[in-house]
Amino acid sequence: MPDAGNETFYSRYLDTLNDRRLGELGAFVHDRLTYNGKPMTLGDYQGLIAGDIAAIPDLRFDVGLLVVNEHQIACRLNFRCTPEREFLGLKPNGRTVSFSEHVFYTLRAGRISEVWSLIDRTAIEAQLAE
Amino acid sequence: MPDAGNETFYSRYLDTLNDRRLGELGAFVHDRLTYNGKPMTLGDYQGLIAGDIAAIPDLRFDVGLLVVNEHQIACRLNFRCTPEREFLGLKPNGRTVSFSEHVFYTLRAGRISEVWSLIDRTAIEAQLAE
After folding, report:
1. Which residues of B touch A64 (CB under 8 A)?
2. What HEC string does A59-98 produce?
3. Which residues in chain B touch residue A102, judged by CB atoms under 8 angstroms apart?
4. How far is residue B130's CA from residue B59's CA, in Å, rounded to a whole number?
5. What pTM value is reported for the model?
6. Which of A9, A65, B14, B37 sits CB 3.0–4.6 Å from A76 for a disulfide?
7. Model ipTM over 0.85
């Protein structure tokens, strides 16, 4: 089943990240979830995103491709941003980089319970090495 | 709109890859497509997959997560295989590796016209370095 509701849900989730309202993430994410197979709490997840934002203050989540059904969301996110601290083990050099993330979410009772994310680290590495 | 038809389409596409019937890929892929933004022909695409299979003879495409709608397919593919030649710039060491690919396909008139793929190269690199 498709669910236009999940497109709206995901758009609101990304607004929450882009507006830096991380305290409101509990409306979208369960108290316990798995991230790339690793169990974590909502607090851990907030901390993970807060860390990304600390490393990349202008981080903005933009939807490139979005495919949803009743219980799943798949998104290609496009980023264009300027890392200021180490990110994914890569040291910043002041340059603006463009890269993508392909992420799958599984929803349970209307909130995210599982995240599988792949980030194009190779693209970032190549741009920071230029 | 969701489309159970595209689940079947994708399952048949993967069977074609897993059975090494690359000559039949034209039933699933347009003569001209883009792969990670790069224009290519069906022949180029067949060559790309043939090259992966040459490097990894036991390469098998297994669906981990699948989300489809009428014109899009998003899949997390799981691999467990033994590279025998260089793959993604990484030299084999005889070890079997497990990794995932997150791939989005856009369909036009019932065939693939656009592919956006991210492979977890970092996971492969770590396993080949062990």
Report:
1. 116
2. CCCEEEEEEECCCEEEEEEEEEECCCCCECCECCCCCCEE
3. 74, 102-104, 116, 118
4. 21
5. 0.95
6. A65
7. yes
